[in-house]
Amino acid sequence: MKKEALEMARKAYAIESECIREMLDYFDEEAFSAAVALLKDAPRIGTCGCGHSGIICQHFAHLLCCIERPARFISPAEAVHGATGYLQKGDVCVFASRGGKTKELMPIADICKAKGVHMITVTENTASPLAEMADVVLKQHVNQETDKYNAQGTTSTTALCVIFHTLQTALIEETDYKNEQFALIHPGGAVGERLNK
Description:
Elements: H1 3-23, H2 29-41, E1 45-49, H3 51-66, E2 71-73, H4 76-79, E3 92-96, H5 106-115, E4 118-123, H6 129-133, E5 136-139, H7 155-174, H8 179-185, H9 189-195
Parallel strand pairs: 1-2, 1-3, 3-4, 4-5
């Protein structure tokens, strides 16, 4: 392995851990509390993003299902071909877009506004179109990506994932979700075996 490759691999740990530490400086308790309240009371939750953000949105939808909050990832490609029919008035759609102006997400946001669906936007650009349309905006902070070109969705993906993890962690407390409930819906794998002993 090249010496430079090993050095960059080690540096990636430092970059991402620094980003997570810095994220606390951007933690807005009021906005976070509002987001948790919307998610707690939502009959249904959609998550929506493109590329790396979309992949992490799929992860968040699964996390929500694991605490029995009805959720699904809505593919931007399918959303404008009927998939937004999943969302009804009073539901919540979580948008993830680092720049806050991902063009594939804009028509979906328009549909949500027209249907009375609450919007939570996670973005680095709090003055962006998706932020301005949202009921709640959560700030995504990214110091730099881990590659030497500062171009790949690495640290930004970690930052988004951490935000979603904090939301799920808070929702467990707010809904008084019990491990026994999780054991019932998660009988599979090593986790299921441990939970159901």
